[in-house]
Amino acid sequence: MTRHATRRGAPLLSLLLLLGLSSSSALVRLGEPLPAHPWQDEEREVVVVYTHDCGDLGELWQAVLTAGLPVRAVNAEEVAAPAPKGLIPWRGAEATAFARKLKVGTYPAVLLVQSGRILNAWEGDFTGQLE
Prior knowledge:
Elements: H1 11-20, E1 44-50, H2 58-65, E2 71-75, E3 90-91, H3 93-102, E4 109-114, E5 117-123
Parallel strand pairs: 1-2, 2-3
Antiparallel strand pairs: 1-4, 4-5
Protein name: Penicillin-binding protein
């Protein structure tokens, strides 16, 4: 039997647990400020950096969107890929440069950001399983 991230009760806690699982393998440096970007920083927000070849990100997007935080979609590597309805992804050379300045090693990368600084990071394939 597999267990999936719960979406009921405490969606932010579920997202934090999800993000905390792989932070030790993240190449993104925790505590660093975000590189230049086109949005105004929020107190706390989630940044998802992804590419066209990440596969089905449906469960990842669902977990991120139910966390109750502002979400920024960054479509890197120059090939357009969709984001969930209501999110306008940042695309193009600047978005790719942003991902490279972050030193994203594996897409998708999910960043929990507080006051413009990276609080937590998760990189890699997302299966929706907490085990």
